[in-house]
From TrEMBL:
Listed name of the protein: RIH domain-containing protein
One Gene Ontology MF term: ryanodine-sensitive calcium-release channel activity
InterPro entries reported for this sequence: RIH_dom (IPR000699), Ryanodine_IP3_receptor (IPR015925)
GO biological processes: release of sequestered calcium ion into cytosol by sarcoplasmic reticulum; striated muscle contraction
Organism name: Oncorhynchus mykiss
Amino acid sequence: MVASCCRFLCYFCRISRQNQKAMFDHLSYLLENSSVGLASPAMRGSTPLDVAASSVMDNNSLALALEEPDLEKVVTYLAGCGLQSCVMLLAKGYPDIGWNPIEGERYLSFLRFAVFSNGESVEENSNTVVKLLIRRPECFGPALRGEGGNGLLAAMLEAIKISEDPALDLPCTANGEPSGSGEDEEEEVAHTGNAIMSFYSALIDLLGRCAPEMHVSDNTFYSLYFIIKPLFIDDSLIEIQS
């Protein structure tokens, strides 16, 4: 029922800007319940967080109406994903990897709509998001969390390794055998390796959209520069593309 209602509300927002505004007025409630369904691949596009994103999507005026407490709430949830595994997935037999890239990627996607609208950067929101991310380094995932992280390339290689091993990538039965690899169950299965790669891809995409023009000499540019610079040491992007 939740998925059906959220799917309808997403369509409702797309019909007109008046509908978007009507739903935007309930943004706080949607964000407070944003964790509902995030860990279920079958509910992707049909969760309260998706409705919240639809209420600001491609609408510059509503994106500008986002307040710092709203963005801070999302960043707080994102930070939580970097500190512990998803309880629901653990209950289904997924391995405990110590963090929650599946739900984290969804919060990153919401922030992308907040900082980038109609092909243009929403500078006010970008500045706020950068400031909030700097305060919560756990938002960057374990591989990029300060000096203890192994870097982006190592994270991607580990994700590929996980995706190639069903025992690490999929939930296990009581007998320790991987489950959920059948075609009928594929829609309900979350793949851990793919989730990790999707998280870091969404993170880099978000940081790129937050970046101001290079000729702009302000604190935001330099703050973002010092965040992104360590991510790409040793030609890691070239290695990842390979």
